[in-house]
Amino acid sequence: MSMDLRRPSRTYTIRQLCQEFDCTPRALRFYEDKGLLAPARQGLNRIYAPRDRARLALILRGKRVGLSLTEMRDILDLYELEDGVAQQNAESLRKFREKVVAMERQRADLDKAIAELHHAIAALEERLASRPDLLPQAADYDQMLRRRLDDADQG
């Protein structure tokens, strides 16, 4: 007696994937238009297979770390090779290392820019020391900007 030990094929709706991955239906349709996802269709409904779910997870991870859609497609296409996972992992590793180097460069540039801004702020505050009536306005503006940034980060 032969038993089929394969896992039963689970499918997902666009709503389920959007909820699970905190993305929009528009984003999934965009990835489909770009050829990164290929859901089956039942009438007008998209039916996503486990393979689509795994690809979406990789796409979103790539997006979070700053990979382009072309880079993601290159990585995803390697899965189709006979040794798909090994080639895919090797290419991912190479691209991730490149991205780390680029991001570290960006971080160094940002750190320099922030230091320059702090220096300029200190110089401006020193110049305005003779006009204490103007300093509270600058402090109020700074607090308002920080609240806006905090709200944007949380939203």
Brief digest:
It is built from six helices and two strands; from the N terminus they run ααββαααα.
Structural overview:
This protein is mostly helical and 155 residues long. It has two domains: 9-64, Multidrug-efflux Transporter Regulator, Chain: A, Domain 2 (Orthogonal Bundle); 68-155. It is built from six helices and two strands. It has helices at residues 14-21, 25-33, 50-64, 69-77, 84-127, 135-154, and strands spanning 40-42, 45-47. It has a two-stranded antiparallel sheet with strand order 1-2. Strand 1 (40-42) and strand 2 (45-47) form a beta hairpin. The longest helix has 44 residues, at 84-127.
Overall geometry: elongated
Q: What's the helical proportion of residues?
A: 55-70%
Q: Number of DSSP strands?
A: 2
**Radius of gyration over alpha carbons?**
24 Å
| Main sheet: strand order | 1-2
Helix and strand composition category: mainly alpha
> Could you give the order of the helices and strands?
HHEEHHHH
Spans with pLDDT under 50 lasting ≥5 residues?
Answer: none
Taking all residues together, what is the mean pLDDT?
86
Walk me through the topology.
Elements: H1 14-21, H2 25-33, E1 40-42, E2 45-47, H3 50-64, H4 69-77, H5 84-127, H6 135-154
Antiparallel strand pairs: 1-2
Helix pairs in contact: 3-4, 4-5
